[in-house]
C-alpha cells in the first residue's frame, strides 16, 4: 500500500484542473491546500508532527508539493506553524506569504525575506496571481484565562491581529474564517461575497477549556447558523479533529443542518483526500 | 386515563416520605417541587400556560398542592412567574417567599405581603423550617443583545441580582443554580457543600440565540464538567425542554457524561413524575 | 480516597431501607444488586476481572456482601459467571440460586448443592422470601454466526433456555429481561405487571458483530419503544458499557426517549453507586 503521506502530496502536485474548477485537500484542524488550474494555496498549513496531534500530518513540509501562496490567519501554532513555513519558503522560493500585518515580524525572524511577506488588514483587497483575497476580521484571543474575545487592537496598535480570508479562485468563493466567534457585522460582511464554500470551525468554547488555555471558537450550531445566514452553499466543518482536549462534534453539525438548514450542503472530507468544486456546485 | 395534571398535584400533596428521603418533581424548564417529610418547596415555579410553551404545566397554580417555601432565582418570566406567585400566596397563606434582594418589590407590587418575602444575597444562610438554604451567585444577564454576562451589580446598587440555591433537606444537598454560566470561583463555592443532586441548565448560549433576546446558560458539556469538578453525585439536566428556540440536548449530556465522567449518575425525569433520593444515593 | 470497590460492597451490606423502598446498584453490563428492607438479590453477577472488561468489577466475589438470592438469566459468561457463583455460594451458605431449568447442571458441576438451585420456566411464579419472581421468555441465541434467535427449545428438549425476570419487591416491580430481542407477545406479557423499573439492554445487533460471534440484543430505540409500549415508568439502560466490540449508545436512548416517549423517565447510574426507588416514583 502506498502511504497516505506520499499519496496526498503527489496528488496535490499532479492534479490537473479544468477552468472553473478548484480542488481542496483538508490537512486536519484548519489546514487546507487549495488549488486552481494555475496556482496552489496553503491555508494555515499545520504540518509539524507534534506529539499532541491525534492525526498525523498528511505529508511533511520536506515532502510538500510546490506552493504559490501561503495564507495564515493568526499566530497560534496550529495556524502559524513557523518551522513549516520556513521549510516551505525554502522549497518553493517563489512562494508569497500573506499574514495579519501585526505578525509579519514572526516570519522575518525565521529568515523569510520581508519582500515575500504581505501583511494585510480587513478592507484591503489582495491580488494573488489570478486570485483575489479579501481579509476579514476574526474575534479571537491570544491567551486565556481570563477569556477575552476581541480583534486584538490593544495588542497591535489598533490593527486587527486575527484574520479570516475570502478567496476568489476560478469564480469560486471560499471563506476560511481563521479562529473566531460569530460577532456583530460578520454576516453583513460575508453576504455580498456570495460564498460558495465556508470552512468553519465547530469546536466551540467552554469555561473548562478556557481554563486549560484553549481559546474557543464558534460551535457547530453557530457555524451552521452563520453559513445559513450568510447564504453559503457548502459548509465544510473544521477544527474538530486534532487535539483530544479540544474536539468538536461533526455529527451534531450534520444533524442540525439537516433539520434546521436543509438548503445547506455539507461535505466532510477525509484527511488528505481531494475534493473538487465547480462554479455552480453546492 | 387520569390526566397528568390531576396526578401530579395530588401526588405532591399525598407523598409520605420517610426520614432521610426527599422527593422531587420536575415541572419543566427550571421549575421543581422539592419535598421532605415535613415541608414542601417550590423552586422557580413556572405554571402559566403561555402559548410559547412546548410542554403544558403539570398543574395550574389554582390546583397547586400546599407549599411552605417558594424560592425564585431571578426575574425572568420562566423563573419568576408573578401571576402564579400571587395565586400561590393566596392558596398557601403561610408560604414564605425567598428571592434575590433587588427584586423583592416585584412581589410586593403583586400584593404579596412584605413580611412573607425574604430578600437574600450569597453568603447569607437562610433557615426555612428544618431546612437550610445557601444562596449562591449566578452569572447571567437581564437582556440582550448585546450579550453581557455579569452578576447584576450595576442594575442593583452593587447587589447580586441573579441567584442559585444550595438547599439542605434531610441531610440531602441539592443545588439549583438558576440561570448561569460557569464562572471563576463557582466550583470552589460548591465543593464544600458535598452536593448530592445538581439541577443544571444545559441549553447553552450562542450568538444567534442572543440576537433573538435569549440570554444563554452553560451547555451540556459545561454542566457535566461543573458537576464533576464540584463532586456532585447525581446530575439532573434542566432548561432544555420548554421553548422551540432555546432547546438543549440531554442525549449529548448523557453521552458526554458516560464517556468523560463515568463516576457521575444522571437522572432524566419525565415532567410531573416523582423521583426520590435517600441520603447515600448517587 | 476510599476505593470504589470497598465502598460499594460496604454500601450494599450497610444499606437500611424503609418499607416500600428498594435500592439498586449497577455492577456493569447486565449485572445488578437489588435490595429491599429484608433481602438482597444479585442478578447476573458478573464479577470476574476478565481482561476484556472495559470497567473493573465494583467488588470481587471474595468481598461480596451477603446475598439471599442469585438470579441468572442464561449461560453466557457475562451473565452466568460460574467461578463467581461458586464463591458466592460459599460466602453466603443460605443463598438460593434461580436459573433457567436447562442449565441447572452447570451450577451443580461447580459444586453448588442441587437443593440450593431452582430451575425455572416462564409461567412459574417463584416465591423468594417476601418477594415474588416471574420468569419471562427471552429470545436469544447461544452462538453465532449463523445468527439464529429463538427461545432455545431445540437445545433444551422444548424448554426455554434464556430467561428474564419480573421481580416484585416491596410493591415495586422490576423487569430484568436477560439478553433478548423484542418478540411477539412480550409486550402483552409485561403490561399486566405494571412495571416500575425496566433494566433493558441497548447494545443492539448487527451483521458485523454477529460475524464476530456477538449475539445481539434490542437496540436503544427498541428498548425505549418496548418500555413505552409496556407502560414502564423508569427505564435504566444496560449492557452498553463493558466490551469495546459491543458498546451501546445511552445518549441516543435519552435523545429518543425525550423526543418520542416523554412520559418515560430515564436513570443512568454510575457503576457501583446506589439508587433507590419508592413505590409511586417514576
TrEMBL record, chains A, B, C:
* Ranges for domain Metallo-beta-lactamase: 28-239
Q: Which InterPro entries match?
A: Metallo-B-lactamas, RibonucZ/Hydroxyglut_hydro, UPF0173_UPF0282_UlaG_hydrolase
UniProt cross-references to Pfam families, sorted A to Z: Lactamase_B_2
Q: What PANTHER family does the record point to?
A: UPF0173 METAL-DEPENDENT HYDROLASE MJ1163-RELATED
Record-given protein name: MBL fold metallo-hydrolase
Source organism of the structure: Reticulibacter mediterranei
